[in-house]
Structure formats: structure tokens, C-alpha cells
Amino acid sequence: MVKEIRETRSDVQTDRELFKASVPFGVESAKTSWWVVGSTFLMLLASLFGAALAPAWPVRLLFSILSALLLVRAFITYHDYMHNAILSRSRPAWWLFRLYAVFALTPPRSWKNSHNFHHGHVGKIDAASVGAFAMMTTDMWRDASLATRIAYRVERHPLTILAGYFTIFFLSVTLLPFLRNPVRHWDSLLVLLGHSTLIAVLWILGGFDVAFFVVLLPMTIASMIGSYLFFAQHSFENMRVLPKETWTSRRAAMESSSYLKLNKVMRWFTGNIGYHHIHHLNVRIPFYRLPEAMEAIPELQSPVTITLSLKDIRASFRCCLWDEGLQRMVSYREFARAAV
């Protein structure tokens, strides 16, 4: 018991020291913030116009795919804004990101509440699956009802990720919070109405193809990319799921959050979200300073690393249950074989 207390105190001290080392990188440059936000949204707007007005459908398709990638980058700026990492006191930014929330189906109240909960509970065994994909231990799975098992498998299924526009952003982030608490999540209704109206107006004025290339296709692609990135960052080989007695913010960042190694182009489009372990250590670090923090702080340079290779994607989806005995993630099939 004495040893456990000492280890806990040591962890707390290490957490404080590491967080303190990260604090200088949590200072934004308003000029840089406006440059990355302004350039991203201007390129997104130009790309959406291209998707709407280009004369040939192959060109419109290319513009639509580009819009999807820019939507991912725009989402990272929105994500940082909601964490008060950039432009937190700017009224123009407030209006810009509220408009973006309508296009991207991310109502501010629902997103902020669920995402903040996720940050405070990522990697905990006993945490409710609020703002994150559900995580069960093998013991919990063994005792679960058939209905609970089906719901769990559906939530973590690759098809749920592929259909993220509907399953995650429309249902989980926007519609269900409003249905559960209409008074608290009134902005979800505004987002739903605004998003639906946008699609309807584009359809009426330009036809289905305009609505498809400007909203439906880029949102489908962007939601699929974003959903998978979020899933993989907390469901990967060699991750750790921790009981609350040993959970610390540092361990959650370094052991329950991954570093997604990407090429320069994808790092730009994904707004450095691959540096996810650093983001979980200190949410106030603007996305454009995450690489700088990793380069400067040695303790952040040895995270669990994943890629977008087919091998790593397959491995991510095979991480289904946390086995407390083996202290690692296992697949349903592996658990079934062990149980037999």
C-alpha cells in the first residue's frame, strides 16, 4: 500500500512537471491563428464554389473531394476554438465557427460538453462512453446482455465509421442530444434546421447534383475521415486502458492516445491531429504548435505510433475489448477462443 501511494505521488509530480513544460506552447499567435483560419475557410469556400459551378462532373468531383479534405482541416480549427486554444475572444471567429457548425453538423453545446468529458476520462475503464466510442473490458462483455453486445459491436463496426455523416455527426452529435434534453441543446435544433435548409436551397436552385457535390459528398468523405481518425487515436495495438486508481492525465495522453504518423500533405489537411498525445496532455496548445512542442520536450517523443497503413487500420478495428488479465486489447474472436 505504501509503495502504491508513493507511485501515485510520483505520477502526480511527473504529470505536473510535464504539463508545466508544455505550457509555453499553449500561447497562440493571433496573427498565425487568423492566417490558418482565414486561409482554410477561403480555400474551402472557393473549392465548394468549384464543386457547384464546374462545367464537367469529373472536375466537380475533384473539387468535392478537395472540399472534404479542407472540411477536415476546418474542423480542427473549430476544435481548437472550442478548446479556447485559438481566437477565444474574437467575435468574428464566434460567428464564423457558428456558421461552420451548421455546415458540419457540430452544434457547439453538444460538441463541447461531450468532448470535454472525453478529455477528462479517456483511457478509464469505468468511464461512460460520452464523447467517445464505447470501451468494454472482457469481464464487462462476459456479463453483458445480448442487446448490449449488439449495440457495442454496431457502435465500433467499420460501417459505422464509414457512415459517420449519419451515425456520428447527425445522430450522436446533433439529433440525440436534442431529443434527450431539448432545453439544454436548443442549438442542435438550429444546426439541424440550418443544415437541412442549406441542402434544400442548393437542391431547389441548382438541382440534386449541386446539393450532392457541395454538401452531401464532401460531408460524407470528411465525416468518414474524421470518424476513423478519432476512433484510431484511442483504439490501437499497445494502448492501455487504466483503472481510475492509476489513471493520470499524463498516462492517458501517452498510453491511451496515439501519435498518428502522417506525410506532410496529410498533416496539413488534418491540422496536426496526429499529435494527439500532446493535445491530450494540454488542450490549449494550438494545432500549429503541436510539432514544436514534440520537438522541444523529450518525454513526448516516444509515444505509441500508428499509421494509415492497411495493416494498422485492420489492427485498429481488431482492438475490440480490453483484457485486464493480458493488459492489452483483444478481438472478439480472440476472447471467444480464450473463453473456450
Q: What tags apply to this protein structure?
A:
3-stranded mixed β-sheet; mainly alpha; 340 residues; two-stranded parallel sheet; 66% helix; 17 helices; globular
List the helices and strands and how they pair.
Layout (H helix, E strand, L loop, with lengths): L1 H21 L7 H24 L3 H26 L8 H14 L3 H14 L14 E2 H6 L2 H10 L2 H5 L1 H17 L5 H21 L1 H25 L16 H7 L3 E2 L3 H6 L6 H6 L8 H7 L8 E2 L3 H9 L2 E3 L4 E3 L1 H8 L1
Parallel strand pairs: 1-4, 2-3
Antiparallel strand pairs: 4-5
Helix pairs in contact: 2-3, 2-11, 3-4, 3-11, 4-10, 9-10, 9-11, 10-11
Describe the 3D structure:
With 340 residues, this protein is mainly alpha-helical. The chain has one domain (29-339). The protein is 66% helix and 4% strand. It is built from 17 helices and 5 strands. A 3-stranded mixed β-sheet has the order 1-4-5. The longest helix has 26 residues, at 57-82. 39% of the residues are buried. The model is unreliable at 1-10 (pLDDT under 50).
Shape, per Cα inertia axes: globular
The radius of gyration is 21 Å
Mean of the pLDDT scores? 90
Instruction: Report the biggest beta sheet as strand number plus sense, adding barrel if it closes.
Output: 3 strands, mixed
- Give the DSSP E fraction (strand runs of 2 or more residues): under 5%
Query: What's the structural domain tally?
Result: 1
Give the H and E element order.
HHHHHEHHHHHHHEHHHEHEEH
Unreliably modeled segments: 1-10
Task: Report the count of strand segments.
Answer: 5
Helix vs. strand class: mainly alpha
Count of individual helical segments: 17
Report helical residue fraction.
Answer: 55-70%
The N- and C-terminal alpha carbons lie at a distance of: 36 Å
Going across the biggest sheet, name each strand in turn: 1-4-5
